[in-house]
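Researcher: Let's walk through a ligand-bound prediction step by step. First, I give you the protein sequence. Second, the SMILES string for zinc ion. Third, you return the three-dimensional complex as structure tokens. Ready?
Model: Ready.
Researcher: Here are steps one and two:
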Amino acid sequence: MEYIQIYSLDFFNDVCLEYKHAKHLSFEALCNTMRKRIGDIEDNREIRKVEHCLHDVCMSGFAMMYFQDPSLLEFQQRLEDKARNNNLKTLFSVKTIPKDSQMRDVIDKLDSEKLKPIFNDFVEKLRRGKQLERFLFMKDYYLMSIDGSEYFGSDKVKCPGCLTKESKSGKIHYTHQILQSVIMHPDMRQVIPLAPEAIKNVDGHQKQDCEIQAGKRLIQKIRQDHPRLKIIIVGDSLYSKQPFIEKLVKHRMRYILTAKDNDHKLLVEWVNEQRQLGEVSSYRTTDTKGIVHEYEWINDVPLNGRDDAQMVNYFHYRIVKNGKVTYKSSWVTDISVTEHNVRELVRGGRSRWKIENEAFNTLKNQGYHIEHNFGHGKENLSFNFFLFNLLAFFIHQIFELTDALYQQCRGKFSSRRAFWQCLKNTIIVLIFPDWQTLLERIIDPMAFL
Ligand SMILES: [Zn+2]
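Model: Step three, the predicted complex:
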């Protein structure tokens, strides 16, 4: 008798679900999401002056960032001239390639706020694909790190939005900065970027914008975009001040914020006094390498000397190697610290470096050219380019998390830079029908001969 295996309905659901995940996080699906948002942007140009539609201009700018190649348009135009086809057309559905200057003019005038929802669309796709839950921390929270970074600087080029800094010699330096937030996890190499907040001057305001003000705007927006997300904000000592903590409380966010001794003299004094009274708890452990890890904590201490001082929980961590302290840091949090969670809290607080290492350093040094002068423009060019760059980085992070083909291809190279260099070189000379074929070709060039 022939044996027929009967699969349960769950099996089919699982298979379908997995297929669906892969599909809605594919290159085509993510590009379509971008395309839909770009399609919603009103094109205010005079029709008779429009040579390239908004879609073609934006996707060309994005493709440049995606392949981390400032000369992408030029090379694809050459392919078009010779072969009547090009990779911008096949991969990004760009019908006509704009000239570099045309693209810059249009992107300069584009309202940056219209691009920001794409970040939430991607986060939502990750959530639906059950990828976001890989980042869960302390059961049902998401660690969200916030930090500022500069992406444009010049002594000559400027706009009304530029931040200014005067040197001792009276020379003025112009910069553009952003405040970035990423969802992260101590055990995950990838980070999930959210829409950044520009730190920029606004006409009519006397005082310059600054990171902390941008921070207050950013957390409000994050709460609006993610009303139910359980969030722990992780930030440096700049943020462990009462006005900012009050904002976090108002927006139902928890926090683990670095508290440097110099910024919190009264708090440190208080903790020292309590230590002498034996009120500070501690825990000490030696690992297999003989390195000593020391933890200290005390709950319900005043953050500062104000009458209405915010009450916080304080914890400290120290690494001692061969009798010498090699690392130490302190944090304040609204999470009650116990001997059961102090190590996890330290891991959460220490993972703050991920925003610098995994996001900013990658964007600056791994080929994304975030500080490269892609152009300042007159209105929004540099910020819009930054957003395209970050969206490209976001998609690459999604592939690192979910796409086996991408991971296999990336695994063939020792560095991210070498991987992208190979992709860049390949699409200059060959035209691919889709992204997947490009990766397959890189993985196994012989299979195509
Ligand atoms: Zn400017």
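Researcher: And what stands out?
Model: Residues 381-402 form the longest helix (22 residues). Residues 9-115+374-448 form one domain.
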